[in-house]
Each structure stands twice: as C-alpha cells, then as structure tokens.
Amino acid sequence: EAGMADPTPTTETKGGFESVDDGDGPDEDDYEDGPQRDRLKTLIANSETDQKIYKAGFLNKTGGGRKGLKRWKRRYFLLSETALAYFTENNTRATTTLKGGMLLTSIEDVRNSEGAESIRPYIFVVVTPTRHYTIQAPTETQRTEWIEAIKQACDKLRLKRSSSIDLPHFNEPTPIKITYFPIRGRPERLRLLLADVGLEFENVVPKDWPTLKAELLAEGLQGTLPLIEFPDGTRVTQSVAAIRHFARLYKRYGSTEADATRCDVVADTVEDWRQDFDRVAYNPGRLDPTAVRTYAQEVLPMRLKLFERMLSIRDMEYVAGSASATFADFMTFDCLDVHLEIDSTVLDGYPRLRDFVALIRGRPPIAKYIATRPPSEFVGKEMSLSPDVGAVSM
C-alpha cells in the first residue's frame, strides 16, 4: 500500500506509517473470548466461497509486543458479511496467518480518533464491549472508506438478523418503496439516511392518487403521502416515523439515551421549521407575497440563527452533539439543502451551518446519492428568499 512501510523488527517512526512487528505470537487481546477464535477461523476459512467480501487491504494496528509494550503492526484486514479479521499476510485461506478480529455483532461503534492524530495520522477506532481497536489507514480517503464500509456491513447484518426477509448480499436491493409525487419533498430526509447506510430503495410516483388515497384510508392509514413500505410489508404514511424506525435499526440515533433525546429535540425543531417553510413553498401560500415576505424577513433568519447558535455554543460538528451522524443531521441537512436550492446565498453569514452542510454532503454515500438523484419538480424554486424582495418571481 502506498504510504505504509513494510513491518520491521526495529524502532517505529511516530507520525508516519512505518510499522513494527515483533515477529512470533498473536496480537494482544485478539478476540473477545476464547470460542470466538474458533468461530472466526471457520468463518474466514470459508469467506471467499460462502461470504461476500466488502473490503480488504493492509492497515496498521496497535498490538502486544515484547514485555507487554504496545507496538504498531502491519496487518492484512478483511471485512466480510459477518466478521472483521486481520492476518499477517494476504493469504486469508491459511488460517495459520489469522492473527485476530471480531464478529460484526460485537462492534458497537466505528469512529475517527482525533486524539491520536498527534501520534499518527489517519487513525480510527473500532469499539467492542471489551476493547477499543486502534487502527491506522494510509490516507484520509482510505480511513473514511474503511469506517463507512464497516458501519454499512454492521447495518446490513443487523437488518438481516432483525428482518424476516433474507437479504443475503450487501449490494442487493432491499424491498423498501417510497411512494410520493415527483419532487423530493418530505421523504428526502429518509432517502438520505437510507443512502448513508447503504440501502437501496425504489421511488414510486402514484399513477392514480385518488384510488391509492381511498386504499390507504380503508387500511386505517392517513390518506397522505409519502407512503413508505418496509421490507416486512409494513406501510406507514409518516416520514418522520419512518426515518426514526430506520435510525433505530441502523444506529443513527446516537449511542446513548441522552443522544437519542437530543436527536428527538432537534428533529422536532426541524419539523416545526419545515412546516413554516411548507406553508409558503406550496400553493396557495407561495402565491401570497405577504406570507413569503414574512417568512424571508422574520421566520427564516430566526431559524438559521437558532441552528447556528446550536452548533457554535456547543462547538459541535453534528447538530445533536453525537460523535457521528444521526437521523437528526439528515433532517437538518435536507431542510437547509432545499433552501440552498432556492437561494445559494442563504447561508452567507452562517459559517457553522455552511461547514455542517459541507460535512454531510461530503460523506461518500451522500455525495454519491446527491450526484445521481433525479432533479426535483418542486415549483417553489421560483420563490425568492431575499428579505428585500420576499415574493415569488413569476
């Protein structure tokens, strides 16, 4: 790998990629428990024929050295459908080269480790109930790719274990259907979350809305869109309930109860803002110059200042204060994104919000989704958010 030196039994270079391997013996604390080693051996031995391999390559990790000293070791990592394992060499069929690893079911979190940057660059940490695995990638791009790949593999396995539908491979589409009009609208925040966790979905435009509405009412549902159909056949007509459902499934609800509560507070605040926006973005509100002017001059600045203060006072990257992105971030991003589509200068004077938008937009799955999503037919793009005009340009 470019930028990562071959392991040698000599002194290591702090801040670089030179890796030390003390030779014989397993890495320190390789497994969560004794039986896991045997299970890992079985899983990895059959991985190339029975399991899909999501990602593989050389990385550095800290491990046990002579006299209990922790040293950096170069290991060949392999991420499969059920495990993250590492080997002394690129020969995963020989279980004698297996040095350690963990089952994906034991992984609680994967995150950047900024505190370790003064020691070595491009560090990330895999958290299990009994250990934090400190790992170094050769570049920032590869660090991001590994973090996202591990998270998505864990999400995929979690869905497979919790759903009655067998979803054998990561890249196979899941039967999630989103029925809505040909605009991004309310379900866009859900699409963003699904894209972030690596789930494919199908957008459906209703061909006969009156008939579908009558069908929904007959089922005891609201006669409104969007309609979201889950993999198990469950149908809901509330996009916020749907995004919370998938956030719980895919650990996009924070890592603690306090995180979850903050997510709910932010999500409800965004929903209040979205209702204010919808009243002037769609008919008949968008045709009322006074209503549009009031939104542009009073409501929008109030909302932007609130979220700018939220990020600034707490010095946060993510709006709910969690260590990684949550569904509340995707709801906030979507609300900001639709305003930016109307007026690209709307965040001038709000530097933390601009950084936040760039952070979410820069996540590889989100960037890929945004680059390929179809254009919206949202007519509200004709409106002006300038406080000096505040009226629709016809």
Mind explaining what this structure looks like?
This protein is of the alpha+beta class and 394 residues long. Helices cover 40% and strands 15% of the residues. The protein has eleven helices and eleven strands. It has a seven-stranded antiparallel sheet with strand order 4-3-2-1-7-6-5. Helix 7 packs parallel to helix 9 (327-342). It is globular, with a radius of gyration of 24 Å. Residues 1-33, 163-173 and 389-394 have low confidence and may be disordered.
What distance lies between the first and last C-alpha atoms, to the nearest angstrom? 57 Å
Average pLDDT level: 78
Low-confidence stretches: 1-33, 163-173, 389-394
Q: Give the strand line-up of the largest sheet.
A: 4-3-2-1-7-6-5
Using the alpha-carbon principal axes, give the shape. globular
Tally of individual helices = 11
What proportion of the residues form beta strands (DSSP E)?
A: 5-15%
Order of helices and strands: HHEEEEEEEHEHEHEEHHHHHH
For the CA atoms, what is the radius of gyration?
24 Å
The total beta strand count reads 11
The largest sheet, given as strand count, sense and whether it forms a barrel, is: 7 strands, antiparallel
